[in-house]
Known about the structure:
The chain is α/β, with parallel strands linked by helices.
Amino acid sequence: MNILMFPGQGSQKIGMGKDFNDNFSVARDIFKEVDDSLDFKLSDLIFTGDIKQLSLTFNTQPALMAVSIAILKVFEEKMGFKINKKFNFLCGHSLGELTALCAANVISLSDTAKLLRIRGEAMQDAVPEGKGSMAALISSDFSQLNNLLDTVKNFGVCEIANDNSTDQIVVSGDTNAVEELVKNSSKFSIKRSLLLNVSAPFHCSLMMPAQIKLQNALNEINFNKPDISIICNFTAKSENDPNMLKSNIINQVTNKVRWKETMQYVHDKGITKAYEFGSGKVLSGLFKRFSRDFVVNNIETIEDLYNIKDLN
C-alpha cells in the first residue's frame, strides 16, 4: 500500500522543477497554466529568480504547488497510469494539503493557484510585520511543554503550530511570547529551540483574519469528490466528503498541523511505502525517522523519477 505526500513552506529553492519544465511538455503546461491563472510569471521567479522574493509566502505557496503538480503529471506520463491506480492516500503539509486537493481533482489547478495566492497574502497581512514569530523545539521529552506554554501567556499568543514528530514541535504566536518561550525552554526539558526565519506566525489563532478570507474565497469554489482519500492536517484522518475537505482546509489555517498523528494513522492503516513529490526531502525524512517499516521515496529531480522501480 502506498501514500503520496506533498511538501509545505520551507522547501522552496531557486531552480526547483526546472529540469522537468525543460524536458517535458506536460510540466511546461502546468507552469504556464499557473502563470496565466495568477497573471504573473511565477515560473521565472521559480527557475531563475531571487530566493527572497520566492520565499514571500504569497509566492512560495503557489510555487511549491506548481512544482509538485508538474512532477506528478510527468510521473503519470512516464509510468503510464493515473495516481489513483497505485496510491491509497494523499496528504500534504500545510499548503501541501491544497496540492493534494488539486492532485485528487477536488479543485482545478487554476483555482488551487489562485487560492494559494489568496491564502499567502491573507496570512502575510494577518499580523503586522515583526509582530509574529515561530520557533522549532527539539526534544525527546515534551511532557512539560504545556507548562512552558502557560508561563508565556502574559506575553501574548503562543501555540503549537506543527506537531511534526516525536522529537520536533513548532510553536507560533506573538513575537514577545515566542521569544520568551525560547529563552526559558531548557528549563522544561527542551533540548534545543530556535527561532525560524518566517514571514508570519502560521497555524495559530492570530491567523483568524486569514482563515476568514480563505473561507470567503472557498465559498465561491465547488469541491468535487476526491479520486483518492486525503488525510487532512486538521483531523489526521482520511476524508472523502467534499464538504468536510473544504471545512478542514479552512480550519487548518488557525490550527496545528498534526503530522505526527498523520504518520501514525498511515502506519496503522498498513501503508508501507511513502512517496514525496516536490522540492526538498523534509517529509521523507520525518517518515523515515518515524518508523523503519516505511520505505520512503522522494521525487525532486528527473534522476529521482527514473530511480523509482517498484510501486506495488
